[in-house]
User: What shape does this take?
Amino acid sequence: MTIKRLLVPLLVFTTGLLVLVVTAGLLLFPSQQQSAGKVPIGGPFRLTSHEGRPFTEENLKGRPFVVFFGFTHCPEVCPTTLYDLTQDMAALGPDADRLQAAFITVDPARDTPELMKTYLSSFDPRIVGLSGTEEEIAAAARAYKIYYRKVPTDDGYTMDHSATLFLMDSKGEFYGTSNFQEPEETRRAKLRQLIKNG
Ligand code: NI
Assistant: This one.
């Protein structure tokens, strides 16, 4: 009986103490990530452009940029995203020249620089296609924390992959994300903000 009567106040007290300790902890020791204001997405990569030239993250810095991972055999998401991005860049007008865009393949076995070049000729010419070895692509995907996987089909294979558009600032720091399901106005507002932010 005594124990039962004590149980509720004890529980209330313990919960209160826990909240107090956690709050104090958060106030006194904010995580490194929060205090630095940086999200660990993006970083160094070494790839090959659709013109067959070496291309690293240094080629993108200096202007804000958009990074998207996909593959040329993608039936829907990639062409839709690239089409939308092309329309967005047209809508942005001259401001789009202050933006860079990179389409990184997750299917380097099929997506040679030559094929990337042909494929991208249907989209805004400012979008650079990037390919590389399996290892180079894996390293770039790790830097952006994206997921991709080869999935066998009846006539070969397809690729499962994250469809996030990464918005990066001119220093190569993570700024935000968008994706193909987002309304056009929202996406364009984000791109305008990214360009303004620099
Ligand atoms: Ni795709």
Q: What stands out?
A: Residues 70-71, 74, 77-78, 161 surround nickel (II) ion (CB under 6 Å). The first helix runs from residue 2 to 28.
